[in-house]
C-alpha cells in the first residue's frame, strides 16, 4: 500500500498453493463488470510499488486451492446467486493462477485485475482487465501475448505522467478512464474533472470506484 510494499517477483509454481490476502463478497466497482455482485479473491504481493496504491496485500497467508474453494463456498451459503469471481491483488499474475481459474470456471465467470506486466497463458474464458502503471516515466505496455478484454487508466491531475492516455492504448477494443483516489479531497476533485475531460475528448468510458462511495470493501 502507498508504495511501501516490497516488490515481489513472479512465482513459478504448479499453482496448487497460493498466497492469499483475503476472500470477500462485494460489488465489483470498476470496469466491464461494474455494479455486479462478485466474490473477490485478493492475492498477496505485487511486483510494482505504486505511491498511490490503495490496497493492503502484504498480510497474506498460503492457502491450498481446496481451502480457497471452501472459503468461496462459505460465501455462497449467503450469496448463492453470485456468479462472478474477481481475482485481484496486489498483482494476481505474479502467481500461477491457471489451476484456480480452471476450478472456478465450473461455477463462475472469472475476471482478473492486473497491471499487465507479467505474462501467463491464461485460459481463454478468463476476462482480463489491465491497468497499466507508470514505470520509469512511461506506462508499462501489456506483456506480449496477454489477451486483454479492457484497459483501465488511472488519471491524476498532479501525479506526473498519469494525465494522458498513451497512443498504443487506442489499438485495444475497450478503454476505461478512472479518476485516481489520492486520499485528498482537493486532489480527487481535480482528478475527477480531468478524467471526465479525457473521457469526453476521446469518447472513452468512465469508471468510478463506486465501492468507496458506497463504503463497502
Ligand atoms: N468493490 C471493489 N471493486 C474492485 N474492483 C477492483 C478492485 C481492486 O482492488 O482490484 C476492487 C476493490 O477493491 N473493491
Ligand atoms: S500495480 Fe496495483 S496493486 Fe501493485 S502497487 Fe501498483 S496499484 Fe498497488
Ligand atoms: Mg481496490
From TrEMBL:
GO terms for molecular function: 4 iron, 4 sulfur cluster binding; carbon-nitrogen lyase activity; magnesium ion binding; S-adenosyl-L-methionine binding. Keywords: 4Fe-4S, Iron, Iron-sulfur, Lyase, Magnesium, Metal-binding, Queuosine biosynthesis, S-adenosyl-L-methionine. The gene is queE. Pathway: Purine metabolism; 7-cyano-7-deazaguanine biosynthesis. The lineage of its organism: Bacteria, Pseudomonadati, Pseudomonadota, Alphaproteobacteria, Rickettsiales. Mg(2+) binds at residue 55. HAMAP family: QueE. It comes from the Bacteria. Its cofactor is Mg(2+); S-adenosyl-L-methionine; [4Fe-4S] cluster. Residues 33-217 form the Radical SAM core domain. Homodimer. This is 7-carboxy-7-deazaguanine synthase. It comes from Candidatus Deianiraea vastatrix. It is an enzyme of class 4 (lyase).
